[in-house]
């Protein structure tokens, strides 16, 4: 029986951060780069912004979803390959209907789509065996629930990766690395039967 692989969207599949940075510059006149985002909570980086303002900019990014690129152009073929081994559940905290349109437009196939309210990180472990995300708090909660957690390396999680807190969490440098890790995990499971 196939295991279920949960995959986050923002920052993991979709490069919403690049559009967020463009919208941030348009709204506030401040030029910033991905490398500047050293914390997941952007309001801690840009202290003049509230959490709600950060979320509002992200919401607007999905209103212009046609400007959102894939984190890695090989993601559709990688996920197609992984579907031979796993049931794919795409997860998001974003209620914008354009998310599903973006997935379809980019050729990302999945078996289940799950929406979680913001701050529901603990629930993301429900119904999945393995989870991939760019947010260290989510993967920490998933690993704490006894599931396999993979953290996609991004500037905002580098501090966590360097800390002792990342023990027990698999760190992936890119999507090809994620694919390699998952196929090895699936092979290990098949070999142990």
Give an overview of the whole structure.
The structure is a single chain. The protein has helices spanning 16-28, 42-45, 51-63, 75-82, 98-105, 136-144, 158-162, 175-191, and strands at 3-8, 86-92, 112-115, 130-133, 148-152, 170-172. The chain folds into 2 domains: 3-14 and 69-191, 3-Layer(aba) Sandwich (Rossmann fold); 16-67. The chain has 193 residues and is α/β, with parallel strands linked by helices. 32% of the residues are buried. The protein has a 6-stranded parallel β-sheet with strand order 3-2-1-4-5-6, with helices on both faces. The radius of gyration is 16 Å and the shape is globular. Helix content is 40%, strand content 15%. Helix 4 packs parallel to helix 8.
Compute the number of helices. 8
Number of strands: 6
Determine the fraction of residues in helical runs and give it as a percent range: 25-40%
Distance between the termini: 11 Å
Low-confidence stretches: none
The shape, in one word, is globular
Task: Strand order, main sheet: write it out.
Answer: 3-2-1-4-5-6
């Amino acid at each position: 029986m196939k295991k279920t692989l949960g995959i986050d969207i923002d920052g993991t599949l979709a490069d919403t951060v690049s559009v967020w940075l463009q919208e941030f510059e348009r709204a506030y006149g401040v030029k910033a780069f991905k490398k500047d985002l050293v914390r997941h909570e952007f309001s801690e980086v840009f202290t003049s912004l509230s959490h709600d303002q950060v979320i509002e900019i992200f919401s607007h990014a999905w209103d212009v979803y046609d400007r959102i690129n894939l984190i890695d152009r090989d993601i559709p073929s990688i996920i197609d390959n992984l579907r031979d081994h796993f049931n794919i559940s795409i997860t998001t905290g974003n209620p914008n209907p354009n998310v599903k349109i973006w997935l379809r437009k980019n050729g990302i196939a999945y078996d289940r789509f799950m929406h979680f309210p913001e701050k529901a990180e603990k629930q993301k472990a429900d119904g999945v065996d393995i989870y991939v995300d760019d947010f260290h708090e989510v993967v920490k909660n998933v690993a704490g629930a006894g599931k396999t957690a993979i953290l996609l390396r991004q500037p905002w999680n580098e501090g966590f990766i360097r800390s002792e807190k990342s023990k027990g969490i698999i760190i992936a440098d890119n999507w090809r690395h994620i694919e390699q890790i998952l196929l090895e995990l699936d092979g290990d499971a098949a070999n142990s039967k």
